[in-house]
Amino acid sequence: MHFDDNSEEFRTDILRGLSNPIQKSIPSKYLYDHKGSYLFEQITVQPEYYPTRIENGILEEYSHMILENIPKEIILIEMGSGSSKKTKHLFDTILKRQDKLYYFPIDISFNFLDSVVTELETQNEKIRIKGIPNDYINGIKDCNSILFENNFKFDSFSRLIVFFGSSIGNFEINEARDFLKDVRLNMNDKDFLLVGFDMIKDEFLIEPAYNDKAGFTAQFNLNLLTRMNRELGSNFDLHQYLHYAFFNKEKDRIEMHIKSKSDQEVRISGCNKIFQLSKDETIHTESSYKYSRDKIQKLATRSGFSLEKIFSDNNNWFNLVLLKPS
User: Fold this and answer.
1) Residue 160 has what DSSP assignment?
2) What is the pTM of this model?
């Protein structure tokens, strides 16, 4: 399934989200079409966006210690792989201990994934890459099927599943638990899961990361309207909306919204319903929950994992957490 082309599911989710009388919303996965994926890569290198920089630093410093916990030969699976730039620290460390590496990047943007895989294949002949254009859970199932069909003996290696970028924070807390439970169901007791968590800290440190001065986050967020106009035939006036992101202290999360600058009516091709947006009304497009050590421990336990190791920067702004099925 190529998610860039999955317009029927896109339409269904948009109609449902815009019909919510309490808070209009759109699932955050739709931010990541080809242009959205490109813009997100630009966000990650902005000076305000600390998560990527710090997570990359943790991987650079601790990759060898992370992998010391995994005695068997490693097959690497990455959920939401993006450009795979941070993952290269693991590539280098893994290939110091084994002759070749099988790597399965999973991403919902087929076109973006295809370009990344093509680039990676030219950089290191010891890495065997199979890009999986799917959602995360079905992507893991696809990886397992490929390994099974190619007669891999599951007792002879460990799958290391990685989930970087604090993407776990995009789930509601109960959704994060259910998601990790689903990941756990597709693992065995020799496998490991490495997850990035953005930690709770002062809002003056968090909010600028989602409101960069160069405006890439605003472009990323508002690109969703362009995508809907292009793929669903909607009539959003692109000049009548603003990017709006703030830290919700009560819920320990960043909320990203698209705010209407005026009273508006929106139509979607093939749908008779008219969607009303009032001035200053918002469409909620993404949340990013921030975690404490205690919340990470509770999430791991409730999802069927034991917490093996935590790797952090000196300020404890970001944690990489190694989990094992319990």
Assistant:
1) E
2) 0.90
For the record, the structure tokens of 155 come out as 């007792």
The residue extents of the domains of the chain are 3-31+210-289, 50-201+291-325
Nearest Cα neighbor of 152 from 125, 181, 120, 190 is 190
Q: What pLDDT is stored for residue 326 in this prediction?
A: 93
d(CA 59, CA 266): 45
Nearest partner of 4 among 23, 30, 25, judged by Cα = 30
Residues of the chain where predicted confidence (pLDDT) is lower than 70: 1-6, 82-83
Q: Among candidates 279, 235, 273, which has minimal Cα distance to 20?
A: 273
Residue listed under structure tokens 């690109």? 223
298-324 as b/e, with b when 16 or more CB fall inside 10 Å? ebbeebbbebbbebbbeeebbbbbbbb
What are 134's two structure tokens? 């799917």
φ, ψ for residue 220, nearest 5 deg: -60, -45
Please name which of 75, 98, 87, 50 lies closest in space to residue 152, comparing C-alpha atoms: 75
The predicted pLDDT at position 4 comes to 45
Per DSSP, helices labelled H in the chain are: 7-18, 34-43, 50-68, 88-94, 110-121, 136-149, 173-185, 203-206, 216-232, 293-302
- Mapped onto helix, strand or coil, the DSSP state of residue 251 is coil
DSSP for 48-113, written as a single string: T-HHHHHHHHHHHHHHHHHHHT--SEEEEEEET-TT-TTTHHHHHHHTTTSS-EEEEEEES-HHHH
The CATH architecture that domain 50-201+291-325 belongs to is 3-Layer(aba) Sandwich (3.40)
